[in-house]
Amino acid sequence: MKKLTDGNGRQIRYMRVSVTDRCNLRCRYCTPTARFVSLSHTEIITYEEIERLARILAPRGVSSIRITGGEPLVRRHLDRLIRSLCRIPGLRDISLTTNGVLLAPLARPLRRAGLSRVNVSLDSLRADRFSWITDPSGRNGSVGPDAILRGLEEARLAGMDPIKINVVLMRGFNDDELEVFAALTRDREYEVRFIEFMPLSPQGFWGKEKVVAAAEVISRLQALNGTLEPLGRGKGSGPAVRYRIPGHSGTLGFITPISEHFCVHCNRIRVTADGKLRTCLFSDRETDLIQPLRSGASDTEIFRLIEAALKEKPDGHGIEEGGTIRTCARTMSHIGG
Ligand code: SAM
Q1: Which residues line ligand 1 at a C-beta cut-off of 6 Å?
Q2: CB-count exposure of residue 171 (10 Å: 0-12, 13-18, 19+)
């Protein structure tokens, strides 16, 4: 069967699907500051529609699906979606990105449904900073980094592997914690991934001066721990370049959309919670899939729509062209990170 490729011949193997635009946190750099009106039930892509897209794309070479949001664990019965995706021939890798708040009680049911790995976002190990970044209005009081660490531990005990911790470094906020995050890999086989802060934030929150480039992180960690052992890219050639601190059980990953973009290897598409296809995180050009999915389009017609959109997939994200930084119309919480 014809494989899914873009206009530059890159084969698409990976789809990220946002299952909700709702989130139980309000991270300052991710959620719009203006009053945020969530999608209504009928606007949100259904599990059946996601499964249908997966069935259309799996035989065409899409072998990995990541479930994201908003916060995916606030959507009910997520285990049902995972179970149905796991049954699709050709889909070899189903993963989840979560803020971890609800992970502790859900790790085992999700593992039983077939989820074998998880990425958990955690930007500070200090309770005061965690509250500041995730809860600007001070409503979530009781949620702190300890709850997320418990979720990580439950995921480990449930047998998920790998478990990745995503840390968005922001200078002046958490860049003094990178050594503490790296130390989490000493006894646990976690992969701690440092992600460069991207200009996808509510107006005014992002600034180039806040980006901490991977090279700086690596040199600080080498000064403390000696030469890091290079491990190359992980399975499935994801965007992270990986290292190990000598003697540590876990690994470190660096995701460098700003200092060294990896668009030439980009093999992904995204589907937003309202069923819009985005061929590039940074391109606001979207193709509506909900209407055709709901109005009787055949699988071939839907595939052709996706294929046509991919002809226009940008070669590179182009966020820093002509010396100025371009931002996007939607923030990450809306697009699905
Ligand atoms: N709620 C889930 C979570 O927290 O992992 C999934 C959605 S969240 C949008 C996915 C990821 O996007 C998180 O790791 C978050 O830190 C990251 N993210 C959001 N805005 C970002 C930005 N401006 N730059 C880099 N990463 C960002």
Answers
A1: 23, 29-30, 68-69, 71, 97-99, 121, 166, 168, 195, 197-198, 200-201, 332-333, 337
A2: middle
Q: List the residue whose alpha carbon is closest to atom 1 of ligand 1.
A: 71
Does pLDDT of 187 surpass 70?
yes
- In tens, the pLDDT along 225-270 reads 999 999 987 765 578 999 999 999 999 999 998 888 888 889 999 9
The type of residue at 36 is F
Band (pLDDT 50/70/90 cuts) for residue 321 is low
**Single pTM value for the model:** 0.95
Q: Say which amino acid occupies 6.
A: D
Helix ranges (H only) for 135-269 are 145-157, 178-183, 214-225
259 in helix, strand or coil? coil
CB contact at 8 A, 196 and 327: no
Dump strand ranges (E) for 38-176: 64-68, 93-98, 117-121, 163-169
What pLDDT, on a 0 to 100 scale, did the predictor assign at position 17?
97
Read off the tokens for 317: 């994200």
18 pairs with which residues across the strands? 68
What confidence category does residue 28 fall into, taking pLDDT thresholds of 50, 70 and 90? very high
**Distance between CA atoms of residues 28 and 275, nearest Å:** 25
Domains present along the chain, CATH in parentheses: 14-335 (3.20.20.70)
